[in-house]
Amino acid sequence: MQFASKEISSAQQAPHKRLIDDLERHLAAPYQKPLQTHNLEAFEQLLKHINSNKYEQLILDSCCGTGLSSRALANNNPGALVIGIDRSLKRLNTESLNAGELPENCLLLRANCEDIWRLCEREGLVFKQHFLLYPNPYPKTEHLKRRWHGHPVFPLLPKLAQKTELRSNWRIYLEEFELCWRHLGAGETQLNELAVQEPLTLFERKYLNSGQALYQLICQNQL
Ligand SMILES: C[S@@+](CC[C@H](N)C(=O)[O-])C[C@H]1O[C@@H](n2cnc3c(N)ncnc32)[C@H](O)[C@@H]1O
Questions:
Q1: What is the pLDDT of residue 101?
Q2: Ligand 1 atom closest to residue 114's alpha carbon, by position in its atom list
Q3: End-to-end CA distance of the chain
Q4: What is the pLDDT of residues 110-137, one digit of tens each?
Q5: Euclidean distance between CA atoms 1 and 209, whole angstroms
Q6: Residue 101: phi, psi to the nearest 5?
Q7: In angstroms, what is the span from residue 135 Cα to ligand 1's centroid?
Q8: Cβ–Cβ contacts within 10 Å for residue 30, how many?
Q9: Most buried by CB count within 10 Å: which residue of 46, 55, 58, 191?
Q10: CA of 41 to the centre of ligand 1 (A)
Q11: Between 171-183 and 19-28, two packed helices, what is the crossing angle to 10 degrees?
Q12: Which residues pair with 81 in a beta bridge?
């Protein structure tokens, strides 16, 4: 029962009414919060790895938690450098205690995504794929601003990768993200119910064990 999880319940039964108004405000006033030192340092590490020039492609795993997905992606894409980012050192350390050596082509960084994304965009880095797997859903209606598509950094996201994949057990989160992506005119999107054979992340495993439906949104970047 350790991995059981309750389905998301929310007063919000459809995309948030303020969704596009908030996005418009963020487009009009780009995110300019000062970058934090620990994120700048993490980004230096990221650049050092990339500049080693050994890798054909770059894959980003944002909000990677313990990094289980980053490890799997690295093993499945031996020519790529997979960069997992999470703000919680505790989470990042948990899996490294249990999962043995990190694959040589996997880098886990403790950092805030909003700063790393801005630094990547500034540097002109474009990832082949960007995974956002089970971000905190913040299902309370008043917490729209905490969801990634409600955050002022959102307009940068399409520029970061050729393809962005988001997964969640709350379909409305994906519907909102999709509406915002399309509002930016960024590219085609596809929202599916996900049939998982082998869970990619710990949260995915937890939701599957509880019999919950899981959803996947694929967003192409045609900007
Ligand atoms: C629900 S967990 C999902 C973790 C993992 N992707 C999984 O599926 O098992 C969400 C993760 O997002 C991380 N997170 C939340 N906000 C973040 C931010 N601004 N920058 C980096 N990580 C963040 C949290 O620390 C947490 O590990």
A1: 85
A2: 19
A3: 45
A4: 999 999 999 999 999 999 999 999 999 9
A5: 9
A6: -60, 140
A7: 6
A8: 11
A9: 46
A10: 19
A11: 40
A12: 58
